[in-house]
Design a protein that fits this description.
alpha/beta; single chain; 285 residues
Length: 285
């Protein structure tokens, strides 16, 4: 293997230590705990695993986790009511709706029930607009984590051609906006893209977020390109790792690349949300 690993496990370690110190200071000054509310609908095993990991990391840095497990049969209206109540609760600093939700639920309506000031997962239209216009807001957690990982390894983005494979509202689309905001030239690819191989072959930076294991062939990767694999299914990423690692300059492992960075970003934004809301509350007194 010639590529250097973009290690998403080691990079967040120092950040989590910093966050723990910030959380402790917040508690001392404000006299209350930070709270991240996590809403999980249904019994999907993978979602339960993800939520458990996030709860564990909350405890590690001193953030209180308020977990709400809801029945899979809940309707959109009732779910939105639950989220709206969390949005109105002054003790809740951040809200995470674990996705995906069951198919009968209008996920977008549920996301929009989150107060943008508590949207620490960066899933609302307000957050997307902030990303698109490079305004101060909350980044989508996985794309934000990817940028933080690239920055940690000093990967330049300005002027480089980035190919984002996937166009989901919480990963592919915001990833492209964040890269554009860093002066990369961005091409979006998806399931209807013709000649995907040719697009990947021209990329200086490849972000794979299609959710189709092994769909990006390693031989497509341009020598020296940076490969970020945000796909995960059956313990595999979207990119053929072994072959791609022989060609790329940097590559993320799966698992251990993007996932830990997502959680670190989520917790970082929860701390920022608490600080902003406290400043706003103090100024209003």
């Amino acid at each position: 293997m010639t590529a250097q690993l973009l290690d998403g496990r080691s990079v967040p370690a120092a950040k989590l230590e910093e966050l723990a110190a910030e959380v402790l200071q917040f508690v001392r000054v404000c006299g209350r705990r930070l709270v991240l509310a996590t809403v999980l609908v249904g019994d999907d095993p993978a979602s339960h695993t993800y939520v458990r990991m996030k709860v564990n990391r909350c405890h590690q840095v001193g953030i209180e986790s308020r977990r709400l497990d809801l029945d899979a049969g809940i309707g959109t209206e009732e779910l939105c009511r639950v989220i709206s109540e969390l949005s109105a609760d002054p003790e809740v600093d951040g809200i995470l709706l674990q996705h995906p939700v069951p198919g009968h639920i209008d996920e977008r309506a549920a996301f929009e029930a989150i107060d943008p000031g508590k949207d620490v997962d960066g899933v609302t239209w307000t957050s997307f607009a902030a990303m698109a216009f490079t305004e101060d807001g909350f980044a989508s957690a996985t794309p934000g984590g990817i940028l933080a990982l690239l920055d940690a390894y000093g990967v330049p983005l300005a002027g480089r051609h980035a190919v984002v494979i996937g166009r989901s509202a919480i990963l592919g689309k915001p990833m492209g906006m964040l890269l554009l905001g860093r002066d990369a030239t961005v091409t979006y690819c998806h399931s209807r893209t013709a000649n995907l191989r040719e697009q990947v072959q021209r990329a200086d930076v490849v972000v794979a977020a299609a959710g189709r294991p092994g769909s990006i062939k390693g031989e497509w990767v341009k020598p020296g390109a940076v490969v970020v694999d945000a796909g995960y299914a059956d313990n595999q990423g979207d990119v053929e790792f072994d072959t791609a690692a022989m060609r790329a300059s940097f590559i993320t492992p799966v698992p251990g690349g993007v996932g830990p960075m997502t959680i670190a970003t989520l917790l970082t934004q929860t701390v920022r949300a608490a600080e902003r809301q406290t400043v706003a509350f103090t100024a209003a007194q």
